[in-house]
Amino acid sequence: MMMMKTMMMLTRPSSSSSSSSPGYGTLMLSLSPPFFVSSSSSSHNNSFHSKSQNFNTLDEALCCFNRMLHMHPPPSIFDFNKLLASISKMKQHSTVVSLSHQMYSFGIPPTVCTLNILVNSLCHLHRLGFAFSVFAKILKLGHQPDAATFNTLIRRLFDEGKIGDALHLFDKMIGEGFQPSVVTYGTLMNGLCKVGNTSAAIKLLRSMEQGNCQPNVVVYTSIIDSLCKDKQLTEALNLFSEMIAKGISPDIFTYTSIIHGLCSLCEWKHVKTLMNEMVDRNIMPNVVTFNIVVDAFCKEGKITEAHDVVNTMIQRGVEPNVVTYNALMDGHCLQYQMDEAVKVFDTMVRNGYVPDVICYTTLINGYCKIQRIDKAMYLFEEMCRQELIPDTVTYSALIHGLCHAGRLQDAMTLFHEMVACGKIPNLVTYSILLDYLCKNCHLVEAMALLNAIEASNMDPDIKIYNTIIDGLCRMGELDVARDLFYNLSSKGLHPDTWTYNILIHGLCKRGLLDEANKLFMEMDENDCSPNDYIYNTIIRGFLQNKETLRAIQLLKEMLARGFSADVSTTTLFVELLSDDRLDQSVKQALHKFLK
Question: Does residue 493 carry a pLDDT above 80?
């Protein structure tokens, strides 16, 4: 409410209002209590040198504030602003708020700079309502908000997901004649890109280009990066070329964003060209740039090429870091080359890097995939001995490995240990356990886990319910499976093709062909078109229940849609042709479709 009121009163202050009281009003009374300042500190020294405000600790800054506050006359407000800015840089935002309150108590009038620092600290403390109250005070005091004020508020609005409010504040800013800076535009565009609205960011860029404030490399880079993440590489490259044509030189961040986009599409030749172009422009790829390329090569199974890139970066004086080594380890693990992955790990340690949780988790996951659970468990215990705390990903990898090795009970024990240690399972953890519990007919435990998921703050997706419904159908609990299926909408979910296939298969297995067919017919109505897997499932259901004509009718429909019968379905039809009891007209129809 305060935010909207402030926006409504946003007008340029008149000169007559400059005599308003400098006080902060009742706002400051509702904030945190003032930081205690002793009056026993020396107050006889009237001189103050602002150049000396280089503080190593918060205590030094507070002692300085105490001396300043009790000087007669006190130092200028500019010296107080410098001190508050220093404390803000220490991220001691609660202290900034308290000290601002004390300045008001001592009658020290704030400037726009003072209030901007306060607005910034309140935003960092997630007290956006109070920040807008201070913004209102700027207007009430007759001050003119500057771009820094708007930038801080707009950034915080985006951080809190209040996109509409951020855009509304920007529009009001323009409407009242306040001039946005390049940082204001950049803040808006970056916020829009982060929420996936790149097209709106581009429109804002075009609007910016029509005004007096021209975009810089930061503005262009934020949009280029967003386009690359959206895999709109052509548009990103066009904007990149446009930027260069306007005389704006790309920086390391621009190149790194485009290289990331090219790597995601496996455009290796273009990656090499762009990295050479960087060097020609005297922009040297840094460890982040190289790591992106190394990781991309590893994920594509190009381990040799990844090692070549690492050798190149070393030759150019760029030292590999933990991220580099972990990418290489992961690449070897993906190829089941565990001995090579361990060699990379050992090289990293020899070069003075301390392995982190991700490094250990990568190796644990690799060993689990080749069912070397003993090695995985050893590494798990080793990381604990190194006082590294396994995270949810570590536990999930090991739980998956245990399940895959047929040690479901050990996996459940580790799961309970994980929860006891305060690690919160995610949907991946639950999905792994549900899958193996259902496959091993442990429906009671599976349903208990489902209840735990539903009782948590997590939003289970349709895959979770597919696993449970499949398990119920396998165990013959068709009524429970059916109820769960029809209750999906109440959970905000819609069945997908796999959900339909599971239940249709269960119904056919029970001989409930009419209900299975009804469900099949509903798929198109629910914007979920049947695929070849479902056609084959229901056709086999009709064949196995002696509904040959209906099966042939569905076969005809399936073929018309461009699908084909799989091996199992074809085998059933061929067996029918050898049945002497089958009606000749039916055999002729079969011959027609099986030619």
Answer: yes
How distant, in Å, are the alpha carbons of 28, 189, 415 from that of 411?
Answer: 54, 46, 6
Q: Could you tell me the CA-to-CA distances from 497 to 501, 527, 528, 529, 530 in Å, in that order?
A: 6, 10, 6, 7, 6
Q: Which two tokens stand for residue 395?
A: 């536990």
pLDDT tens digits, 183-192: 988 988 989 9
Which phi and psi angles does 116 have, rounded to 5°?
-65, -40
CA angle 127, 26, 20 (to 5 degrees): 110
> SS in 3 state form for 279-347?
HHCCCCCCHHHHHHHHHHHHHCCCHHHHHHHHHHHHHCCCCCCHHHHHHHHHHHHHCCCHHHHHHHHHH
Q: At what angle do helices 497-510 and 532-544 cross, to 10 degrees?
A: 10
Q: Residue 199 and residue 532: Cα distance in Å, rounded?
A: 37
In angstroms and rounded to an integer, the radius of gyration of the C-alpha atoms of the chain is 33
Q: Residue with structure tokens 């119904």?
A: 507
Rounded Cα distance between 82 and 113, Å, is 9
**Residues 27-67 pLDDT 10s:** 433 333 333 333 333 333 444 554 445 677 888 888 988 88
The tens digit of pLDDT for each residue in 206-225 reads 988 888 889 999 999 999 99
Closest CA to 450 of 481, 494, 496: 481
- Dihedral of alpha carbons 215, 216, 222, 223, sign: positive
Chain CA centroid to CA 7, Å: 31
Rounded CA separation 51/83 (Å): 11
Distance, in Å, from the CA atom of 593 to the CA atom of 211, rounded to the nearest integer, reads 68
What CA–CA distance (Å, rounded) separates 227 from 233? 6
Confidence of residue 94 (pLDDT cuts 50, 70, 90): very high
Question: Euclidean distance between the first and final Cα of the chain, in Å?
Answer: 73
